[in-house]
Amino acid sequence: MNVYLIRSEEISCSRFATIVDIVRRTIGPIKFIATDEDISVDDPDPKNKKKKNIDESKFTPQRLKWETLFRNCEVFREENKAIDKNDYVVFFTDNKNERNWFSSMDPSGAFNFFISTSGWADLLEAEEFYPVIYELATIPLMIETCGSLQEVENMAHKDYPNGNGPRGCPWDYCSNKKFVELRYRTGDICPDCRKKITENKVDPSLVRQVLAIMDDIRGQMLYKRIFPFIQQISKMEVNKRQGKLSFTDINNLSVHLGAREMAFYIFFLKHPEGVEFRYLNPKGVEEGNKMNKVYVNELRIIYESICGDAILARLDSAMKNFFKERSNILKNIKDELTVALGRDIASHYIIDRKPKSIKDGKKSLEHIHYIKLDRKNVIYIRDAN
Ligand SMILES: [Zn+2]
Questions:
Q1: Residue 217: which domain range?
Q2: Nearest C-alpha neighbor of 7 from the set 45, 31, 41
Q3: Sheet strands side by side (includes 2-7)
Q4: Which of 9, 187, 202, 262 has the smallest number of CB atoms closer than 10 Å to its CB?
């Protein structure tokens, strides 16, 4: 079964790639397919992209009409003739919709779906994307079991007083978000729905795959929730080639960084003592400053190994841009880590700054940038670095 995933332009490729990563690593009959364009974080020339990226912080959600949501899926089908009518197409958007629904199937009966990725801010921090993944994973299970949207609704466990309330099951249909949350915590299917799944002869390997995704989400959420009590720092795998940081103790939750961000990040990882930013100024190299020469060269080698760009002139200008853009690069890294991990956990991994201390113990006005993380928690993937 093919499930094509498409993103609306306000969802960043990085955020989308994290979602796609989680569902894709399960084994089973469901193939989650996203275009490279939608998940490739690095985009040196945005003009080459058919689909734009919108600055998420400047995005104001609109209320989309029901037809518009599914029209996006139809357009995608028209542009990609290889898609079979039995394949699913799922459209992700931060926009709201006229019915205020979180997700739905095309009422025409076509296998088109949308999932709303916003409106989960009242969940715990850094957990907003779990409902999205849960919804995505359970679509094939629900449709394979029920066959139609109408039948899904008939089987739903509705709120009191119309129904018996939530059971911690994919068929929980609750408007109260606190109740909806129960599903992610159990990661289970209720006995009634299990019975129905068996009666309707749903492929057991599909059920296993969906349950594996649900369990993955449950494990990640659990780690984040108990972190304040156990303070166990996750190991982090650095995959330079793929521009990916994976947190192995959080079920390999991944964060995708662009080439510039990755180069900067690795540079600071290699310097647990911290580095003053002024040493990364290429101007200092021209002026003959030794420290600048060493650091700029090191950063340049890392960057070169990431993008394989051997053209010297281009590297030179990249180094100048690095310095000019340093605040943005730092912010991008911090944003991606915070979205995925939450502020508390992310504080161990971000590039932070502290005042440089001077001999008599007084604080200096100059700052050192550094990553707090104990480097014993860093694993460099061989061949990828
Ligand atoms: Zn149920």
A1: 121-232
A2: 41
A3: 31-34, 2-7, 88-93, 112-116, 103-105
A4: 9
- Taking alpha carbons only, the member of 13, 33, 90, 32 closest to residue 212 is 32
- 3-state SS assignment for residue 97: strand
Distance 98 CA to ligand 1 centre (A): 27
Distance 167 CA to ligand 1 centre (A): 7
The CA 151 to ligand 1 mean position distance, Å, reads 13
DSSP one-letter string for 265-298: HHHHHT-TT-B-GGGG-HHHHHTT-HHHHHHHHH
The pLDDT value recorded for residue 364 is 67
Looking at the structure, tell me whether residues 132 and 202 fall in a common domain. Answer: yes
CA–CA separation, 150 vs 251, rounded Å?
Answer: 35
Question: Is the residue at 242 inside a domain?
Answer: yes
Closest CA to 4 of 94, 69, 80: 80
C-alpha of residue 217 to centroid of ligand 1, in Å: 18
339: closest CA among 7, 22, 16, 5? 16
Ligand 1 center to 184 CA (angstroms): 13
The residue type of 291 is M
Cα of 183 to ligand 1 centre, how many Å?
10
pLDDT tens for 257-311 read 988 899 999 999 999 999 999 999 989 989 999 999 999 999 989 988 887 755 6
Mark which of 75, 102, 119 sits at the end of a domain: 119
Q: Residue 163 Cα, ligand 1 centroid: separation in angstroms?
A: 12
d(CA 169, CA 179) in angstroms, rounded, equals 11
